[in-house]
Amino acid sequence: MKNKIKNHLKNNIFVLNYSRMWPFIKPYWIRALIATLITIPIGSLDAVIALSLKPFMDTIIMEKGGETPFNLPLYSIPLFIIFFTIIQSALEYTSAYLNTWVGGKITNSLKQKVYQKLVSCEASFADKNTSGFIVFRCDSDPTLACSGLINNLKVFTTRLFSSISLICVLFYTSWQLAIIAIIILSSALYPLTKIREKIKEVMNKTVLAGGAVLTVFNETFAGLKTIASYNLETQQTSKFSDILKQIFKLQIKYTQRTAWLSPMMHIIISFGIAGAIWYGSYLIKSNQITSGDFVSFMTALLMLYTPIKNIGKNFTSVQMSFMAIERVFDFLATKMSVTEKENAPHLQPLQNKIEYKSVSFSYNSEKTILNNINLTINKGEKIAFVGNSGGGKTTLINLLPRFYQITKGSILIDGQDIQNVSLRSLRNQIAIVFQDNFLFSGTIKENILLGKQDATEKEINQAIKSACLDDFIKTLPNGINTQIGERGVLLSGGQKQRVAIARAFLKNAPIVILDEATSALDNKSESIVQQAIDNLMYDRTVLVIAHRLSTIQNADKIIVINEGKIIEQGNHETLLNMNGAYHSLYMAQFKSKN
Ligand SMILES: Nc1ncnc2c1ncn2[C@@H]1O[C@H](COP(=O)(O)OP(=O)(O)OP(=O)(O)O)[C@@H](O)[C@H]1O
Ligand SMILES: [Mg+2]
Fold first, then answer.
1. I need a labelling partner for 434 at 20 to 30 A (CA). Which of 25, 53, 83, 135 fits?
2. The pTM of the whole model exceeds 0.85
């Protein structure tokens, strides 16, 4: 029996959601409790107003000489009503203030937690989700979960206590009438128990559609040039309008499933009121109750009517908050495949070699991208990867900093499996320059400093010089403190790459990964960037992907990857003499240049 109750409590949505939220509420629990407790007098004071009408009615109107409570003078009754209403209003203000305070604090700590989770998500998480969906999950859901929950809880408890106190008035004035009214009113609450199942599916679809709207905004903003160049304005607008139509349909569906609740309660309650009037008239006539009792009763019943009718709406909002809590906690519980063992040891700086041992990888179960890759990279070597587009070069190097989880095989650094060491120490050893480097909004300096937060001025200047950025920075009125815009939009392609290279310099990691760093540049920019890259590669272990074979002829080893397999490897001369894939690639580029 005890276990049954325990299980029931555990599965109870209300208990479950509040227990999940507890760690976030805990630091502010005293204020949260006060905010909730205040709702008790706020709700209960409704009863005072209803109750004070009885002596007023009996004494003044009916002149039956009924007694005022505590024999107070009659004029005190209207004063009491004003006095209690002032108290009620003051408490309402305090409660609103406390609720905003507590709600805001809890929302912030939940958002902080969600953001912490987001920044530690693996790359495949970004592959599977859209930006709009993420904004919805990380911003709208925690807001809905907390503020919605706290505000609704306040309204819910106020209404609940108001209802309880008014019900007491009903029983005090006439228990017979009260029983009729209660039976009818409680049947009005029954539909609430069904509401959750009815709105869950619609709510989940609404979240997806809401996410899709945000994604369209993001994409449109980022892709304005593409939209203009292909004249996609009409097409994009109609795509957007389709999503809006979908949301409209969902809103209508939601209304269909919930809006009947209040009118339905309205009708049921009217039966209660009709019944009370009918039976009340009989009780007055047969002198079982006074007219004062009846007026008090009817006032309490009518006052009860509003909270009970609104509890329907309120209950739906509470359910929506609960669903948001569930989505937030589902997100927080998302399992990542790139994980770290507990107390994983620190990876020591590369001493000897990096080994890929029978590495296979696929992004999803449909297609194997890398197939049984075996590769050794000795410390200080420069290894270049070439091959057909989509062959798996980027994928191969993305496995070294563990952006993705290897499907089969292992990667070892000095004999230590990278899966067994701490992610932080592994990634500390690797500086990466991607093809499309991500720059954050802010200044050039702020972006470079991401490589090493506590770098000295001397180190920064050295990095700028080595990345061949000094001449460019000298031309800027604000120099290194120039704002570069969101994603670095105010810089040219080559400048962005050099900022990224400067960042990698500052990191001063022993292993350097360069992915297509010189593509999409004109010859002049390429030679500057190439100079920066040569500087960066100096005295480090380097994995470089290049489409322009001219840039990698000096590499210690060139690996040719085709369809996820290593098909040739060796230095430039050896590979050319093999007359194979590398030879064909080289000849194709050589011809196109002449
Ligand atoms: N995040 C991803 N999710 C699913 N599939 C992916 C993902 N990234 C790449 N792929 C697929 O994996 C294959 C290898 O891609 P990869 O980017 O490694 O090729 P690549 O050799 O670097 O090509 P390129 O020279 O054009 O840059 C491609 O078929 C690509 O479609
Ligand atoms: Mg690539």
1. 135
2. no
